[in-house]
Amino acid sequence: MKKLFFLLVFNLSFAQTTNFITIAVLDFKNLSKNPGYDFLEKTIAESFITTLKKSEKFKLAERQRLIDLIDEKKLVLSGLIEKDVEETKKIGKLISADAIIFGSFSSIDGNIEINARLVSVDSGEIIMAEKITEKMGDKLFYKINELAESFVLKLLDYKTGYLNLDTTPQGAEVKIDNNVIGITPITEKKMKTGTYKITIVKNGYEIKTTSIKIEENIKNNYNFYLEKKAEKFYRSRFSIFSHFVQFLQPDYQTDYGLSFEYFLGDFSIGIEGGGNILFHSYEDKTAPGEPYKDLMILHNFRFNLLLKYNFFKDSKFVSPYLGGGIGIFTGSSEEYNYSKTAFFYKYILGINFFPSSIVSFFIDAYYYDVGDIILKEKKFNFFGEYTYIEKPVKTANIMLGLGLRIGF
Amino acid sequence: MKKLLVLIILFIFNSCEKVFDDSNPIFPETKLIRVSLPAYTTTSDYPDFVWSSPSDCKYQVVGIFTNKIIINGKNIVNKNDCIAMWHTGLTGQAGNVNYTFFKVTINGEIKDYQPSALQNGNTYYWAVWGYDKDLKLTHSSDQIQFTKN
Q1: How many CB atoms lie within 10 A of CB B36?
Q2: Contacts of B88 in chain A (CB under 8 A)
Q3: Is B131's CB within 8 Å of A289's CB?
Q4: Confidence of residue A11 (pLDDT cuts 50, 70, 90)
Q5: pTM higher than 0.80 for the full model?
Q6: What residues of A are in contact with residue B137 (Cβ under 8 Å)?
Q7: Helix, strand, coil % over all residues of chain B, rounded to 5
Q8: Which residues of chain B have pLDDT under 70?
Q9: Does any CB of chain B come closer than 8 Å to the CB of residue A385?
Q10: Where would I find the beta strands (DSSP E) of B73-122?
Q11: Do B87 and A288 touch (CB under 8 A)?
Q12: Which of A:99-118 have CB within 8 Å of B?
């Protein structure tokens, strides 16, 4: 039925084996009384022209000729046409147009309201009239484009449906064939029916490419979740750490240190250096009166190489890892008559949180063993200066701790 | 003038006392503990032992030996000559103890029982030494010889 209506409307130009529909686009009239909006008069018209030019089925009336004609006849562009259909028909015929697009805009409470009309030159009938309201800004221009496209769809008598498209988060550009069709949320955008491949783009988020289907005369609703872009992967990382929870030995140990690691694929190699503090307390019950109590604090240095395998190293949230290392352990104390140097090995298991961020943190546990440390405990001597008894202390331990990592 | 003369005499007297005090601690590099009783002779089977207790000693030990105490560095060599010993863990304690509170010492080990009375005609040597809170030997007296009559 619609098609029939259009055939009637455009019978002179379109139906008579002519391949084009000739359209005249007039400047839109500024009714806002604000000369600051005058630029929109031509901008809106240009937007219609650009959209119409995309289709090979339209021929645009020569604009300069249209302007000259209006000047010659001393006509007020849109006002006349709205009031005098006969005059419109005359102008249309003078420029050999099948239809004329014209309209006006005004400013209401800070919003721009645009009215657009499509008039048949032959019959003088208003074939289509649409209104949009939007605040001045990017969204207004997207809506003007949508308005122009809906006129094109009407002229081509395509079957149309409505698109409602939203994204989480909002504010993403939606593109079809590299042309932006709107910024989310897009509401009730009239589109030709069919399946479209769309691209959704938002700064800081992964580009999403997907298909949507527009069905006739219904609201086609889509909602897409946009994934945040993975942070830059930092191949070199510098860490500061401490392990302070132990599981195996009665003598408390803690450590601290710095490390540097470099990623080679899923593996990372690194060097670690730092200190280890051993707290050894004992009692000498042979001392007269109260037992003599002593707390020995032994500070050792450790340096080791490390090799780790990192699972999901690109993950935004967690990256478990496991590995091992070998190194040297050394320490001495004149006060406690103590000295120790030994090679050691360690196994490590941990989780790096937010590994893709420039600053991340990790929790890990390691097992290590530097062999027995011989400590000399004081023993009271009733016949002179105190003596020592040697006490072997085991160091094999599982240590749990955490650290801060900076990528660069 | 008389007052000045008295002051001069007192000064000379005080100086002479220092010259004649030749006590030395038995352990080298320790502070001297002054002892008073018993000295030279005692008639008591259970005499009192008296010394000026230093306030900065955490532990103090009194030992009675049957022979002169022999020292090597900061250790007593002839531990086996020690027949009785008393010790305290109290800081700055009074500085006197009766022989009845001593414990028997055999081969350098303190036993948990009282020694028998001192024997008439025997000569003994006693000394007191003190330790700081880190078990370091910091104080000691001279060894005093006395005979039980």
Answers
A1: 13
A2: 288-289
A3: no
A4: very low
A5: no
A6: 384-386
A7: 15, 40, 45
A8: 1-22, 39-41, 89-94
A9: yes
A10: 75-76, 82-88, 96-98, 103-106, 109-110
A11: yes
A12: none
Q: Given this model, what pLDDT does residue A311 score? A: 94
Distance CA A144, CA A134 (A): 10
What is the C-alpha separation between A232 and A220, in angstroms, rounded?
37
pLDDT (0 to 100) of residue B19: 40
Burial status of residue A256 (CB atoms within 10 A of its CB: 0-12, 13-18, 19 or more): middle
Judge whether A229 and A353 are in contact, CB under 8 Å: no
Q: Which DSSP letter does residue A110 get?
A: T
Which residues on B lie below 8 Å from A289 (Cβ)? 58-59, 87-90
Using DSSP bridges, classify how beta strands B59-65 and B123-131 pair: parallel, antiparallel or unpaired.
antiparallel
A320: cis peptide before it, omega within 30°? Answer: no
Query: Which of A288-292, A309-313, B6-10 has the weakest average pLDDT?
Result: B6-10
Inter-axis angle of helices A39-53 and A138-155, to 10 degrees?
A: 50
| Cβ A125 vs Cβ A49: under 8 Å | no
Q: What is the least distance, in Å, from the CA of B146 to any CA of chain A?
A: 21
3-state helix, strand, coil in chain A (%, to 5): 20, 55, 30
| Closest-CA residue of chain B to A290 | B89
B123, amino acid identity: T
A292 in contact with chain B, both atoms CB, cutoff 8 A: yes
Contact A214, A192 (CB under 8 A): yes
Q: Which two tokens stand for residue A85?
A: 């259909």
Q: Do B75 and A384 touch (CB under 8 A)?
A: yes
Element (H, E) at A339: strand A338-353
Q: What's the confidence (pLDDT) of residue A222?
A: 94
Q: Write the CA distances from A111 to A117, A140, A189, A280, integer angstroms.
A: 20, 9, 19, 78
A3 pLDDT above the threshold of 60: no
E-strand stretches of A184-290: 186-192, 194-201, 208-214, 219-225, 236-246, 252-264, 267-284
Out of B58, B76, B89, the one facing A384 most closely (by C-beta) is: B76
Across the beta sheet with A179-183, the strand order is A179-183, A173-176, A194-201, A208-214
Residue B4's pLDDT is 61
* Alpha carbon distance A15, A121 (integer Å): 15
Enumerate the residues of chain A whose CB falls inside 8 A of the CB of residue B85: 382
- Omega of the bond prior to A185 within 30 degrees of 0, cis? yes
Residue A111 contacts residue A75 (beta carbons within 8 Å): no
The verdict on B59 touching A (C-beta cutoff 8 Å) is yes
- Rg of chain B over Cα atoms, rounded to whole angstroms, equals 17
DSSP letters along A52-94, please?
Answer: HHTSTTEEEPPHHHHHHHHHHTT--HHHHHHH-HHHHHHHHHH
**Local structure of residue B67 (DSSP, 8 states):** S
ipTM above 0.85, yes or no: no
CA distance B67 to chain A (A): 15
- Report the amino acid identity of residue A201: V
CB contact, 8 Å: A386 with chain B?
Answer: yes
